[in-house]
Design brief:
single chain, 191 residues, mainly alpha, two-stranded parallel sheet, 8 helices, 4 strands, 7% strand
Length: 191
């Protein structure tokens, strides 16, 4: 394929290559390409030799940072009266919990709090989080990774059709997904 076999080494050497921070790009280096521009170049070459060439992007933790969604859900739980009454210490801790961008879900954030939660507390938090994370209700908290929107547009500009691949439940999350894609000005989904 002509792609470099060098280990991942573009960051920070190529950090300003497209006037943006490409830290979200870690997911793509497994294909052996070491810079965003090299990926776009390879895609341009493929488009010239391929009919119906596509660029497929995952959403969660690839284009969108979903940790703010998890953080908002945990902080909302801390405000629930029924939760504060049953788990006052946990409510106090969760009211200021931080979920880092490298964390998917809530397990690591809960461990970091030092709560030493009971099985009942873990189950309660998990159920509350799941019912809101996998729905439209808190998707407004998602942020895009720096450079993600620009890269997707650049991929589309090569002539490739852009598709978004996700494990999101369509009936529970489509509306919020479409709002986020439009709000952040990602290319439209082909119908």
């Amino acid at each position: 394929t002509g792609m470099s076999k060098k280990p991942f080494s573009w960051y920070p050497r190529h950090q300003n290559e497209l006037k943006t921070d490409w830290t979200f790009f870690v997911k793509f280096v497994t294909v052996g390409v070491v810079t965003p521009n090299e990926i776009l170049q390879k895609l341009s070459e493929d488009v010239r030799t391929c009919e119906n060439c596509a660029a497929v992007f995952d959403l969660d933790s690839t284009l969108f940072c979903v940790s703010p969604r998890s953080q908002a859900i945990l902080r909302d739980l801390a405000l629930e009266t029924w939760f504060r009454d049953k788990f006052p210490k946990a409510a106090a801790v969760l009211s200021s919990v931080v979920v880092h961008p490298v964390e998917y879900g809530i397990k690591t954030a809960l461990i970091r709090t030092g709560l030493n939660p009971s099985a009942e507390l873990v189950d309660t938090v998990r159920k509350y989080w799941r019912s809101r994370f996998f729905s439209n209700s808190h998707m407004r908290h998602d942020l895009i990774y720096p450079g993600a929107e620009e890269f997707v547009h650049r991929a589309q500009a090569t002539g490739a059709t852009v598709y978004y691949l996700t494990g999101r439940n369509e009936s529970l999350m489509r509306e919020g997904t479409m709002i986020n894609l439009q709000q952040w000005k990602f290319p439209d989904i082909p119908l």
